Amino acid sequence: MGWFGLRTKRDAERDFMERVFVHWDGMYRYALRLTGSESEAHDLVQEAMTKALQHFDRVRPETNYRAWVYTIVRNTFVSRVRKGDRISLVEDIDLHAAEPEAPTGSVMEVLGQDRFKEGFEDEVLAALQQLPEVQRTAVVLCDIEGLDYEAIAHVLDCPVGTVRSRIHHARKRLKQVLAGYAQRRGYSHVENQ
User: Fold this and answer.
1) Of 17, 109, 172, 176, which one has the fewest beta carbons inside 10 Å?
2) Angle, alpha carbons 103-106-109 (nearest 5°)
3) Within-domain flag for 190
4) 51 in a domain, yes or no?
5) Secondary structure of 69-90 in HEC code, one letter for each residue
6) Rounded to whole angstroms, how far apart are CA atoms 193 and 190?
7) pTM to 2 decimals?
8) How many domains does the chain have?
């Protein structure tokens, strides 16, 4: 039963709340980016949180809990995609680096349901939505959720170098797509490359 079994029930509940449950909002934002739907994101986070609770007793105290729960969200999402026989959204970046992936449904339809858009204008959200899923996931986890490259590599189950590449390509694409937007907002030093 691992180290969890050595603690009292009250200690275990407190530890779960302090180490895992505190990431609920970030997990939801990440799930929303993956699914594009508030209801699916809620379901995904609830399922992931249930799995985290079921396996919490096997996790070592020195674990990066944030990366661990994001990994559970991603793996749960991938499992759902596979079970639904839908096209996998986690394809290899090297195969599609030059081609933006078409969003599922219209961009405005997806964005209209998205509480995550608070603080972002539609043009920025549309640019994010145009990125291939693996690039979007990497840049959201890094630049919005604040995970470091090693944690993102853990979540995406890929080498750190691949994470760096995905973030680089995503940022480069966003810079190109949003250059006009940035200039209209007064950031005159932005170049359109």
Assistant:
1) 17
2) 120
3) no
4) yes
5) HHHHHHHHHHHHHHHCCCCCCC
6) 9
7) 0.59
8) 1
